[in-house]
Each structure stands twice: as structure tokens, then as C-alpha cells.
Task: structure prediction
Amino acid sequence: MKESNENPLGLENKLYTSEEFGSLLRNKFGADGSISNVILTEIFLSKYPSYSCRIKKPENHINQKSCGCC
Result:
């Protein structure tokens, strides 16, 4: 995957589940094996909320002002 300033994680242009996104983070950066992919995703999104646009939202999702995509 080619990385760029607009896409430093090198993600495909698609939506991911929290589980898939966490797995991508784990493969890219490594992580403690005792942390689930979902929790890893939540930790990452709390630091970088702009990536929340890459996560599939549940039907009862409430828009957040901090992400810029909702």
C-alpha cells in the first residue's frame, strides 16, 4: 500500500468494522495482545477522531462534531 499525507495509514477507500480497523492497526503498528481489536480502535479514534469516518456506523449512531464526516 502506498502511503500519502492524506492517508498516512495506507487504508483502502472503504468503511471498516471496528474489528477490521483494529486488526489493520495491529498489523501496521503492533499492539499488546491482551487488548481486543475493538478496544484498540476506540483508543486510536479517541486520539485521532478524523478516522472515525472510516468506521461503519450503527443505525442508531449519533453524529459527533469532532470527526468532520458526520
